[in-house]
Amino acid sequence: MEGWKLVVVSVVFCTTFYRHVHTFEIDLTIEIRAGVKECFWQHIKRESSAELEYQVIDGGDLDIDFTLQSPDGRIMHMETRKTENVLKVNADVEGEYKFCFDNTFSRMSPKVVFFEIISDYDDDEDDDDWNINHEEVVGMVDLTVEEFKGIIERAKGNLDKSIQIQNLIKVHEARDRNIAEANFIRVNVLSAVQLFVMVTVGLIQVIMIRSLFGDTNKTKPGLKQKT
């Protein structure tokens, strides 16, 4: 019976927690053509934080220019020729935050970029939901509402972190695979060129050696040898 009570209470608290905690998570892999600048916008509430991570996984020297701009037009962060980075955005102004990946410095190489945005913020208007049937819950289990809230928050944080790490592992694997494939193609091309040069040099050497040791005493046609 006690086990069933604990399960019921856990379900109640999980439901309440997800009602008042709002989370968004975006992860995309995009291709940015040479000489092109791609920008994205994300709405972030005031006094909340977001974590932005990007990584160039294919193309050229695996570098990109990055710019983060606040809703009021202020440049919050700028980087040039970076392969990867993780940024913490503290939103002091609510609105559309603009972040751009700039590949205009490249004339030939497109870039493949993976980026991810994670943000959590609490809705203060729903904080009173934690007080629903407070006395009844305390009577059912020994844990308090705040302890349950802390357990659920830690579990959710650990799950989000696990998902983020798995995405990072996939991105690193994709980048390493692209590098390996590019090196494989480069090695094959260089090997073919070297083989062609070696065969050409060998044939030239054979022809030159045969010309040096040819029979120079042969009588030319049309001439008779004196007796």
Averaging pLDDT over every residue, what do you get? Answer: 77
Poorly predicted spans: 1-21
The whole-angstrom Rg is: 34 Å
Q: What is the ordering of alpha helices and beta strands?
A: HEEEEEEEEHH
- The strand count comes to 8
Strand line-up of the largest beta sheet = 1-8-3-6
- Which structural category do the helix and sheet elements fall into? alpha+beta
The total of helices stands at 3
In percent, how helical is the residue content?
Answer: 40-55%
Overall form = elongated
The biggest sheet, with number of strands, parallel, antiparallel or mixed sense and barrel status, is:
4 strands, antiparallel
Task: Describe this structure as you would to a colleague.
The chain is α+β, with helices and mostly antiparallel strands. The protein is built from three helices and eight strands; from the N terminus they run H-E-E-E-E-E-E-E-E-H-H. The strands form two sheets. A four-stranded antiparallel sheet has the order 1-8-3-6. Strands 2-7-4-5 form a four-stranded antiparallel sheet, with no helix packed on it. Strand 4 and strand 5 (75-82) form a beta hairpin. Helix 1 (2-20) crosses helix 3 (145-212). It is elongated and about 105 Å long. Mean pLDDT is 77; it is low at 1-21.
